[in-house]
Amino acid sequence: MESDSQYPSRPIRLVIGHLRSAPIQSIAHVLARKLSTYLCQPVEIDSHPGTGGTLGLATLARSAPDGYTLLMTSTATMSISRYLYNHRPLDPRGSFVPVALICPLPQGAVKASRRMPDVQRNIDWLVKSRSEIEGIYAPPGTSRAIVDRLAHAITRTIATFDVHAELDKHDIDLVVLTGPSLRAYLDQEGASRDDAVV
Q1: 25-64 confidence digits (pLDDT tens)
Q2: Integer angstrom CA distances of residue 67 from 43, 87, 114, 149
Q3: Do residues 110 and 52 lie in contact, with contact meaning Cβ atoms separated by under 8 Å?
Q4: pLDDT given for residue 109 in this prediction
Q5: Domains in the chain, please, with CATH?
Q6: Sign of dihedral through CA atoms 75, 152, 172, 70?
Q7: Considering the entire predicted model, what is its pTM?
Q8: How far apart are CA 28 and CA 179, in angstroms?
Q9: 10 Å Cβ neighbour count for 138?
């Protein structure tokens, strides 16, 4: 049995949970290519769009908690799908393990609006940006060591010059935050939707 310290030792599948906008398509493919190099294992994109994003959620829910299947989907899918479907295997907002938050912004927006050091001010800034916000998630039960390894790989990869050079071709800047910020964002989004439903 593989130990957490040996991870990853085989290809990783990145499930795409919904139909993507052009910027997100570009980010997903750039991220997969660069993570493959950083982690020394292939990161393969596996698209499962449709049914409001719940096909991707179901795929992740059925996956082993070993870090070899990840899901990239919108925070909107995570926040609202539990109100739309009664047959899901898990409540997505509280069950999957947040790895990273990715927010594409028009080129220059990140530099013009410096993010603050604390989580809540980051979240407030993202909410005001009204941008498309994506999350990367691991299956429930994935170890903290693997989640931290993935979060570190994602943030280090996206910070590299060549990733920014590729995204510059699409006029995209990125805000990338790790799991706790994604969890805080989902909790805030979920609370606002709960208030609206009541």
Answers
A1: 778 888 899 999 999 999 999 887 665 667 788 888 889 9
A2: 11, 25, 32, 10
A3: no
A4: 57
A5: 4-197 (3.40.190.150)
A6: negative
A7: 0.81
A8: 18
A9: 25
